[in-house]
């Protein structure tokens, strides 16, 4: 089996949002803060490695129970990364409110963001 190349985002690359047809569109511009961004990217790179491992397991004919266990771990890791982003957004809103500034996202937008992962 050949080694797969990965493309690592750089600090100069803009943050982008991914929109799917199965999730509600959440409007509002709130960049992910730098500390959260680094943590989430680390988590996602780990997930990427886990997914590559799952692919190898399937290609090698491993037991379905082992494969599903690893898939469940990936799912939980993705959820944790998403909730980290939501937590950061909540903190940004609380800090903005504390400074008397306009909130970067409305409570309804934050709720939709949370429910997209729930």
How would you summarize the topology of this molecule?
Layout: H1 34-59, H2 64-98, H3 107-117
Detailed description of the structure:
The protein has 118 residues and is mainly alpha-helical. It has a single domain (34-117), classed as Up-down Bundle (Methane Monooxygenase Hydroxylase, Chain G, domain 1). Helices cover 61% and strands 0% of the residues. It is built from three helices and no strands. It has helices at residues 34-59, 64-98, 107-117. Helix 1 packs antiparallel against helix 2 and helix 2 packs antiparallel against helix 3. The longest helix is centred in the C-terminal third of the chain and has 35 residues, at 64-98. It is elongated. 3% of the residues are buried.
Distance between the termini: 37 Å
Global morphology:
elongated
The CATH architecture can be named as Up-down Bundle
Computed CA radius of gyration, to the nearest angstrom? 17 Å
Q: Domains counted in the coordinates: how many?
A: 1
Top-tier CATH class? Mainly Alpha
Secondary-structure class: mainly alpha
Q: Uncertain regions: pLDDT < 50 for 5+ in a row?
A: 1-24
Discrete helix count:
3
Written as H for each helix and E for each strand, in order along the chain, the element string is HHH
CATH topology: Methane Monooxygenase Hydroxylase, Chain G, domain 1
Average pLDDT score: 81
CATH homologous superfamily?
A: Metal-sensitive repressor, helix protomer
The percentage helix is 55-70%
Strand content: under 5%
- Give the tally of β-strands: 0
The major sheet is characterized as: none
């Amino acid at each position: 089996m050949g080694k797969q190349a990965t493309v690592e985002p750089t600090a100069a690359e803009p943050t982008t949002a991914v929109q799917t047809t199965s999730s509600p569109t959440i409007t509002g511009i709130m960049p992910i803060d730098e500390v959260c961004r680094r943590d989430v990217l680390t988590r996602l790179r780990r997930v990427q490695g886990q997914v590559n491992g799952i692919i190898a397991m399937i290609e090698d004919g491993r037991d379905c129970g082992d494969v599903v266990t690893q898939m469940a771990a990936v799912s939980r890791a993705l959820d944790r990364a998403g909730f980290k982003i939501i937590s950061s957004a909540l903190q940004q809103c609380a800090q903005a409110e504390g400074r008397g500034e306009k909130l970067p996202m409305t409570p309804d937008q934050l709720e939709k963001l949370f429910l997209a992962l729930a």
